[in-house]
Amino acid sequence: MVEVANARTKGLALFRKDMESLEGEFSYGETAYHLPVCYALTGKRVSNADSAREVYRETGESVFVAGECTVAASVAAKGGFPPPFTGFIGDAVIRKLGYSLVDGSIAGLALVTGTPAVPDHVVAICRELQEKLMLTFLSGDVVPALVDAGVKVGVEFRLVPLGPGPIHAVHLTDLLARVAMMFGGVAPGDADRLVRYANDRTKVFAAVFPGLSDREVAYIDALRSLGVSLVAVGDYEGDGWVPAEPSRAVATGMAERGISVAVTAIPIPMHCSPAFEGKSIRKEEMYVEFGGGRSPAFELLVMRDEGQVVDGKVTLIGPDVDQLQEGSAVPLGIIVEVAGKQMRKEYEPVLERRIHNFINYGEGSWHVAQRDLIWVRLSKEAVKNGVKIRDLGVLLAAKFRMDFPTIIDAVQVTLITDRERVLAGKQKAELVYAERDSRIAGMKDSDVDTFYSCTLCQTFAPNHVCIITPERPALCGAISWLDGKVAHEISPAGANQPVPKGSAIDDLRGEFEGVNSFVRKASHGEVARCCLYSIMESPMTCCGCFECIALVVPEANGVLVVNREYQGETPVGMTFSTLAGTIGGGAQTPGFIGISKNFILSERFIQADGGISRLVWLPSLLKEELRDRLREALAARGLPDLYEKIADETRATTLEELVAFLASVDHPALTMPPLL
Ligand code: SF4
Ligand code: NI
Predict the structure, then answer these.
(1) Separation of 288 CA from ligand 2 center, angstroms?
(2) Is 623 helix (H, G, I), strand (E, B) or coil?
(3) Alpha carbon 323 to its chain's center
(4) For ligand 1, what atom is nearest to the CA of residue 495?
(5) How many helices (H) and strands (E) does the chain have?
(6) Statement to judge: residues 350 and 495 lie in one domain
(7) Mean pLDDT of all residues in the chain?
(8) CA 193–ligand 1 middle distance (angstroms)
(9) pLDDT tens across 393-428, in order?
(10) Residue 442 pLDDT more than 90?
């Protein structure tokens, strides 16, 4: 039996020695927060042994500082970790996780560490964590135990292998510190607020197997001060360490930290959980694929009258996997028919988009795109375990019923693999898509008197409010005006509320009385005004999960936009991560807005400041992604040659190059009225 108090005393003394003999320079890439724990606690940027010791003293010999600095120094000395270990996790990954942390698809965070005596125990614990919607971090020998048992690890499986030793749990702490600064508006150096934020907002527990050194015990024990519940799956005895059998570890940890999740098993031979949503199935791993340009495929969700839908009925027309050749591309039609008293025709496209999520929940099924562009794969492993194409129907029927109980009373699913039938069904589906598009295409903000709010991100950014309009989709890219409307109708007390526009204070700026008063209230008085179409004057606040940042470049008299995926520096000399670190947390920052990719195409995009003619720079991949739609939008606005005049990193990586390029192509921004 390990006495935690004894081990802790010894561990703290060892850390003190480590800090005395610490040497060299160390820093992390892909973050705007330096060594995040040191920075969050003191506001100081640690980059070498001397600055580390200074912060260590200033924090009263904080074990968090010692852990962070010693790990950073040893990584700097030895180089990074071999796969599968992630080591330090960059800011972009955390921002990308932001949305799932607030929309409930991640219920909480777990740390699993130590050396399991029986590897199967850690396998079972991690499977359960995946099924219970937890995001799990792993450090120490639990990682090889999982890998040897064939469990896939990685951020995309929500099992994040931080490092080979238990002490690499430091990367969970630096993540918590950054969540507080990125999303929570906790100022670097405000240690009290950091601790309060971690206790109040993040739900974390740790399952600790045996084998921790004294240092590691001291470090893990300190996590309690951040609100992390500790479950001893090994022989530890200490204050606040709750003992549990391996089979009870997850239930105990979740109960200790107050996390509850209802999961209903779906009767198919494959694990199903949002934990698997981010995975991919590579060509070598796939048994059969559908669509993706290799075979005709489509999906369609339609509403039927009650009585026309037999709940839970799944029909397959055409051959199933046992009659298909391994490695082949096969036609596929997915038709989901739903009925319900509260169901409305306008919900169809919003629900149809969920097919994508649900199929990706399957550990061995994968889905991209929508409508008649879908591309679906089943893995060899899944097929070996007995998964059939029919099971996708069972999965869809079950998930639609589970996730939309208020509007769906009955669901039936028809899957088609017969080529002729798929082609015929696809033709009919295309008529439905076209009809839907014509209904919402070209909807303008001026056509509606109600916008929708979203406050999901208040979990992390307590004063942030998104206002979503037909022409301004949410900054996270996840919610359109129609989504907001449907979400509100489905769940009237939820995070999406109607916002009556009220009278216009200024149409050009997009300032409305109703929006201002809503924002004032929902931001708890922090934000008095919100101009929807301006980057300069009272722009919308950002939380942290924006797809892109738009910012004013005074030298170019214009605006550049950079997306989260772009890793390089922008011409202003900062990366997306660095820029993102300077905004967010629910604050308004004139000159900066967080936006979705699609907002760039909108006629309302910074309309008050001159609109799209101000756009001087985009990363080339984003420019390429938007190419056809952007060209079309520009042509429609009488700017057919602007696309070629927008610089990217192949044209300009510095301000000088940018300005020179803009001059050489006669970019309109240069002759527009001064922005500042
Ligand atoms: Fe967060 Fe806004 Fe997206 Fe809602 S719409 S999830 S508040 S970023
Ligand atoms: Ni957010």
Answers:
(1) 37
(2) helix
(3) 38
(4) 4
(5) 22, 25
(6) no
(7) 94
(8) 23
(9) 999 999 999 989 889 999 999 999 999 999 999 999
(10) no
pLDDT in tens, 86-112: 999 999 899 888 777 777 778 999 999
3-state SS class at 325: coil
Token pair belonging to 639: 């700017």
Does residue 606 sit in the same domain as residue 466?
yes
Residue 208 forms beta bridges with which residues? 113, 232
Asked whether residue 268 is assigned to any structural domain, the reply reads no
- Mutational pocket test of ligand 1: of 460, 466, 597, the residue with most ligand atoms within 8 Å of the beta carbon: 466
Same domain as 463, residue 434 = no
The order of strands in the sheet holding 375-379 is 328-330, 286-291, 375-379, 365-368
Which atom of ligand 1 lies closest to the CA of 466?
A: 2
pTM: 0.76
Distance CA 247, CA 251 (A): 8
Confidence band for 658, pLDDT divided at 50, 70 and 90: very high
CATH of the domain at 324: 3.30.1650.10
Type of residue found at 639: L
Q: What is the pLDDT of residues 566-584, one digit of tens each?
A: 999 999 999 998 999 888 8
Question: Which residue in 432, 256, 270, 273 sits closest to 337, CA to CA?
Answer: 432
The position carrying tokens 């991690």 is 126
Measured in Å, residue 499 CA sits from the centre of ligand 2 at: 19
Per-residue pLDDT tens digits for 196-229? 999 998 899 999 999 999 999 999 999 999 999 9
* Domain hosting residue 551, numbered range: 446-671
Among 256, 291, 317, the domain boundary falls at 256
Residues, Cβ < 5 Å to ion ligand 2: 457, 543, 545
Ligand 1: lining residues by beta carbon, under 6 Å:
99, 102, 454-457, 466, 474-476, 478-479, 543, 545
Q: Looking at ligand 1, which residue's alpha carbon is closest to its atom 2?
A: 466
- Residue of 456, 469, 540 to mutate, ligand 1, most atoms within 8 A of C-beta: 456
Determine the distance separating the centroid of ligand 1 and the alpha carbon of 455, expressed in angstroms: 6
* Residue minimizing CA distance to atom 3 of ligand 1: 476
Of 408, 439, 470, the residue at which a domain comes to its end is 439
Pocket test for ligand 1, best of 97, 99, 103 (most atoms within 8 A of CB): 99
Residue 606 shares a structural domain with residue 476: yes
